Amino acid sequence: MGSEDQPPRAAPTRSRTLVIGGDLKVNRLGFGAMRITGTGIWGDPTDPAEARAVLRRAVELGVNFIDTADSYGPATSENLIAEALRPYPPGLVVATKGGIVRPTRERWDRDCRPEHLREACEGSLRRLQVERIDLYQLHAVDELVPFEDSVGELARLQRTGKIRHVGLSNVTPAQLAQARHLVEVVSVQNRYNVADRYSDPVLAACERAGIAFIPWSPLPRNPNEAGSASRRALDAVAARRGISTDRAALAWLLARSPVMLPIPGTSSRAHLEDNVAAASLDFTDEEMREIG
Q1: Full set of structural domains in the chain with CATH
Q2: Averaged pLDDT, 156-163
């Protein structure tokens, strides 16, 4: 039988779990808790009971990594997580972020002064009702504050027992390298999806160092992205498989790198279940080459 008659070869079995910082073992499909808030990521959701139900259902489906931030609401997301999930089940990791403030619905202002980060961390501890945050991430780089001062404050919070591990968000490879001279960095959260791979150099740096890469906006939503060759190929693969494009996009991310930890967010239990189904989907080598 010729090689052209061979059935598609499955990609090598990938690990379903990831160890962050040497001691946080999580399933590689997490949940981003940004969209359980109100319109514009502002205020309370229209249906708080449904938002809490989504969180509980995520845990029931095996999600044990939840990502949030004090700016989601602001404060709303962290409060809902505590209301829905406390007492937290063993092994559940709730990661949060500080360094962005929301004076109005439309504004996402950066404030990474050490004094603000201290205040932000204390606020997250109170709202999540924990004594220590497993993973605390610098939400953005503030050009008005020396980067080493911001990262240095997270290192201080770690030394004082307020946070267990330090992560970064929205950084360049150079900033990641700079931060790693100051503190152990266990995760990086940058925008990344099948149609937006601007952070490929950061992903490569994370792979070399064994650092978790948490792609925000893992599901391509920009209308301009629909015309990209990779997005069209993804749509074609999803259609042949009989699955949603969102599920295919998440499966592609999981196959893209062993350090990838997608955190799709939703306010719908049905959408949540479709997203989580990606964790058990493996693309073939041929499908990965087709998507690129």
Answers
A1: 17-219+253-284 (3.20.20.100)
A2: 98
Reported as a pLDDT band with limits 50, 70 and 90, residue 104 is very high
pTM over 0.90: yes
209 is written with which tokens?
């160092």
Type of residue at 153 = E
| SS3 call for 204 | helix
Residues in the chain: 292
Tell me which residues are annotated as active site. 72
Burial of 99 (0-12, 13-18, 19+ CB in 10 A): buried
What's the token pair of residue 56? 């509980």
CA-to-CA distance for 184 and 181, rounded, in angstroms?
8
* 176 within 8 A of 201, measured Cβ to Cβ: no
How much of the chain exceeds pLDDT 90, in percent? 91
**Residue 147: which residues within 8 A CB-CB, separation 6 or more?**
141, 175, 178, 179
Spatial contact of 234 and 193, defined as CB atoms under 8 Å apart: no
DSSP 221-287: --GGGGGSHHHHHHHHHHHHHT--HHHHHHHHHHHH-TTB------S-HHHHHHHHGGGG---BHHH
For residues 156 and 138, what is the distance between their CA atoms, to the nearest angstrom? 13
Question: By C-alpha distance, which of 215, 219, 140, 216 is closest to 172?
Answer: 140
Residue range 37-50: mean pLDDT, rounded: 96
What is the arithmetic mean of pLDDT over 94-98? 98
Tokens of 105: 């619905």
pLDDT tens digits along 241-268: 999 999 999 999 999 999 999 999 999 9
Query: Which of 218 and 226 is assigned the larger pLDDT?
Result: 218
